[in-house]
Amino acid sequence: MPKLTFRGGVRLKGYKDLSANVPIVFHQAKGELVFPLNQHVGKPAIPIVKRGEAVLAGQIIAKADGFESANIITSGSGKVKAIESRMTSAGVMAPCIVIDNDGQYNLAPGVGEPCDYTKLTNEEIVAKVQAAGVVGLGGAATPTHIKLCPEQPEEIDHIIANGAECEPYITCDDRLMQEQPGWIVSGLKVLMQMFPAADAVIAIQDDKPAAIAAMQKAIEGERKMSVMVLKTKYPQGSERNLVHAVTRRKMTSDDTPANLGCIVNNVTTLAAIYHAVCLNEPLMEKGFTVTGDAVAEPHNFLVKIGTSCSEILEAAGGLKAEPKKVLIGGPMMGMAITDLDIPIAKSYNALVCMTHDPVEDCEIKETACIRCGRCVRACPVGLVPQMMAQAATAKEYERYVKLHGLDCIGCGCCAYICPAKRPLTQMFKQTKPIVLDLQRQGKL
To answer: Whose CA is closest to 148, among 187, 195, 113?
Structure first.
């Protein structure tokens, strides 16, 4: 049977061998814990604690501001040290709650108490997920309770567990599937109760044979659950491409997976759903890979949210060489950072330290477009990056919209494949907010 995939995309050198065989290590933060109020899509959360107040692990310290927002939960116990602006991975100062970590990790009342999910209504399950502050942990950071409230729940026929982990270097999802497949399966069972007409599909790239075997063993005897093997190709983990690969349904920028009968969650998010619903454990920790050729001992961690990147790097043996570039996330969609004293947020899944900067190398070699069309063939969304770049450079924003530029998912395939080394993805990421702002003002 041919492996499932999608049109376009690129084959990348994964660099996953640096950490793929390293089991997950649980890391208890030793230093202060810092929680940005905006770790999710939608409005920032609103602080409900004050400076000097004692808090317990698992306690809500900032409330969601409306439905499209998410609670912030402290991952440790101690006292509120400050509510102030701190540096984030975006390179800007942002409001944060700082907890003076006492190292005791005393739990708030009720945290960890088992719950029989089969006795809960759909509304009660959604409320538990919402209260736990669960968001998309594959990087999108959409509040998960939103995904669990489709307009037509009876039409959901696929629940897809995204185990693609197609971004280079990152291996924490792979290790989770190998080491804790039961968490993922239990999360799927919760969703299958909510959407009884759906089949559950665990979609994994074929570069993860151990994870495939572990998940297949974990679902033995389970009805309506299957593992689907995907061709290893980037960006296989994008929701749009994943839905198409699994169901052959085409998703446009105006669609959501739910419009096409699908609920899609990253495998780590499913594990978080299980912990929130079945164990009354809010989102306090997540998988995190520290890797790159500048790292002394690449590791996969289960790390407390709010832990400093500098502390988790030290736990991986620190640096063995001076890094030329440090990224939060992978090299395709991650963000370059210049300061390691930033907190690990919900949507972060890796710290990558590299001794060379491929972007800098490309800047030296950049030439004019040679009109080869490789960017068109590589685009997983079916866009024409060459023409989009012309419109963006000329500030012809109406033309940019007509070229469906807003459909760009920012995956980086066009820039990666471009023989002229043009910074196409950077152009599109800069242009998109300008266009959206003009549309909001009614000028476009």
So the answer is: 195
How many angstroms separate the CA atoms of 324 and 268, rounded?
30
What CA–CA distance (Å, rounded) separates 17 from 10?
19
Q: What is the 3-state secondary structure (H, E, C) of 231-285?
A: CCCECCCCHHHHHHHHHCCCCCCCCCHHHHCEEEEEHHHHHHHHHHHHCCCCCCE
Contacts of 46 (CB under 8 A, 6+ apart): 37, 62, 63, 64, 65
Instruction: State the pLDDT confidence band at 364, using cuts at 50, 70 and 90.
Output: confident
Using left for φ > 0, alpha for ψ between -120 and 50, and beta otherwise, residue 230 falls in beta
Rounded to the nearest angstrom, the gap between the alpha carbon of residue 191 and the centroid of all alpha carbons in its chain is: 19
Find, among 369, 387, 385, the residue nearest to 377 by Cα. Answer: 385
What share of residues in the chain are helix, strand, coil (percent, to 5)?
30, 20, 45
Question: How many whole angstroms separate alpha carbon 204 and alpha carbon 178?
Answer: 12
How far CA 307 is from CA of 17, 70, 428, in Å, comes to 25, 19, 32
pLDDT tens across 116-136, in order? 999 999 999 999 999 999 999
Cβ-contact 47, 97 below 8 angstroms:
yes
Sheet order of strands, 299-304 included: 24-27, 299-304, 285-291, 350-354, 325-328, 335-336
Please name the amino acid found at residue 95.
P
Asked if omega into 235 is within 30° of 0 (cis), the reply is: yes
Characterize the bridge pairing of strands 299-304 and 24-27.
parallel
Return the DSSP state at 314.
Answer: H
Closest to 268 measured CA to CA, from 174, 205, 344, 331: 174
Q: What angle do CA 96, 98, 102 make, to 5 degrees?
A: 160
pTM listed for this prediction:
0.94
Task: Quickly tell me which residue has 């997950």 as its tokens.
Answer: 24
